[in-house]
Amino acid sequence: MSLETKIMESLKEAMKAKDQAALRGIRAIKSAILLFKTDGSGNVLDEAAEIKLVQKLVKQRQDSLAIYKEQNREDLAKVEEEEIEVLMKFLPEQLSEADIEKIVGDIIAESGATSIKDMGKVMGLANAKLAGKADGKTISMIVKKLLA
Fold first, then answer.
1. CA-to-CA distance for 57 and 5, rounded, in angstroms?
2. For domain 97-147, is the CATH number 1.10.10.410?
3. Tens of pLDDT along 3-59?
4. Where in the chain is the domain with CATH 1.10.1510.10?
5. What is the per-residue pLDDT across 95-108, written as a single tens digit (0 to 9) for each?
6. Which of 9, 68, 70, 85 is a plausible cystine mate for 76, CB 3.0–4.6 Å?
């Protein structure tokens, strides 16, 4: 089942349940899909692109959430938290830091990376292998820790 199909089903369910938080999050994904399809680039919306699209939406909301919390805007922060929760349902299961650390350790061993200078090479391999299962910030933090 494609993301677009899941979105339409979830949208119907959220409308029936009158769940405003779910409606906001699902409509954001639907809008992003529509923009992707009509951007004129001719790119195909495959599973990897779908995951990347939802991850981007989650990242935007996490950034906004951090700003709202910094400025003591709990009302706006609550909205962002609700939307993040809805968006996360459309992403694959996220790995724990221990699992990510093990995978990154294997990548470092395979690539022969020895110092922080090799971080770019390791990050490229790690991002490809962990696409959708972990966010780039966490991967970067773990790569730095293991290469230091």
1. 18
2. yes
3. 888 899 999 999 999 999 899 999 999 999 888 888 877 777 888 788 888 889 999
4. 3-88
5. 888 888 888 888 88
6. 68
Q: Where in the chain is the domain with CATH 1.10.10.410?
A: 97-147
Distance of alpha carbon 51 from alpha carbon 94, whole angstroms: 12
What is the Cα–Cα distance from 36 to 11, expressed in whole angstroms? 19
Sequential DSSP letters for 2-60: -HHHHHHHHHHHHHHHT-HHHHHHHHHHHHHHHHHHTSSS-----HHHHHHHHHHHHHH
Burial status of residue 120 (CB atoms within 10 A of its CB: 0-12, 13-18, 19 or more): exposed
Token pair of 88 as six digits: 């996360």
Q: How many angstroms separate the CA atoms of 32 and 77, rounded? A: 22
Look up residue 10 and give its two tokens.
Answer: 């979830």
Give residue 1's pLDDT.
65
Q: Can you give the pTM of this predicted structure?
A: 0.77
